[in-house]
Task: structure prediction
Amino acid sequence: MFSLHRYRQKLVLLDPSTILVTVTTLLFLFSIIKIFNATTQVSSIRLGDLVVHDTASNIDATTNPSKSNFDLDSNSDDIISGSKSNSKSKSSLSSDTKKLTGSKLLNSQSEAPYQRENATIMTLCRDEDMWDIIKSVRRLEDRFNHKYHYDWVFLNNEEFSDEFKKRLTSLVSGEAKFGVIPREHWSYPDFVDQEKAKEGRERMAQQGIIYAEMESYRHMCRFNSGFFYEHPLMKQYKYYWRVEPDVNFFCDVDYDPFRYLRVNNKLYGFTISIYEFELTIESLWGHVKDFIKKNPQYLDKNNFMDFLSNDGGDSYNLCHFWSNFEIADMDFWRSEAYTKFFNYLDSTGGFFYERWGDAPIHSIGISLFAGRDQIHYFDDIGYNHGVYSMCPIDEQVWLDKKCSCEPNSDFTFRGYSCGQHYFKVTGKKKPDNWKDYADL
Ligand SMILES: *[C@@H]1O[C@H](CO)[C@@H](O)[C@H](O)[C@H]1NC(C)=O
Result:
């Protein structure tokens, strides 16, 4: 009580020393407030800058893919491949997906807008596939594309309906584009004898071959083999990810597979490999051998022939990458080697007289005319199409990628898969527990 009283007294008295102390204190407090204000202003400006910048570049990248979005910048390479490696070094070529883990990438995204690759997702389908392709799109957006906003090109041999466009546009986080396939890419070429083609379909139907009687299926396989990458909507891109109706993606794709291909100098990526029905491609290998004999210069010195053939190329073992899933470089399909290869095969009419699938055509082309190290097995992208699935059986991968599939459904080491053969010829190490999920 007493001291308080004295204090009051002092204030009331206002002696010179008290005034000095008070004024100094007030000045001090005032300047602190000023500094604090200034600091918050600066940081809010910075934050605003970032937000505005980010939004602008996103919009720009989505609606108007300008060159800068595709520029290769060494910073992003570092982010992907680890600060030590560079895209041309041997170690980066032989490295695996592990170094592409997403956390670094996503952290960096908040600091600067992500520079997308020159790539698009693509789908060939029809209006009647709408509900099934919607499932695929939603699943891939949730597992991957909502973070990256790649464009999505939808192609059809006729115009998509307005409803199709409206619904799919709302689901795709990049720009959705809808294209019609030019007639010359979806019709009989002059050199094909349509009567002979009809006989071929009837013969194959009697043999009980799936899709034997379908003409449209043959146009589709031919289009996927030799034309999709020439479509005006596809021409502006280098990489594509092919997605079909009602496929499933079981795991988080927490890195950019397009960037993985580019940084590691890969041309083609797959998840499932499988044996082809021999009756659909009876004459194919003979034509392939003829082509190689006439054009030996196209064979890559380091090719992957041993994936295709168990006898040095004499016969085809029917192994191929299941092409309903592909992440690949279209400039390979556009190359002289593959273009001549496709034209040669096409000129035999085999797409129509038999029922050649685009999967063996792509697989043979990439395995012969590219280096074996340029083909990548995406063993961490859990995937399902129809009755076959790829599900990571390595528990750590399953946990890290938050997969939702049953490891027991994994097809890789089952009887009808070429997985065991793939591991044998590449010398890759199988997961330790592979025998638990294998047909031996
Ligand atoms: C994307 O790739 C295609 C095919 O290689 C090329 O024609 C196009 O110029 C590339 N776009 C950019 C922006 O680099």
The radius of gyration is 30 Å. The chain is about 50% helix and 10% strand.
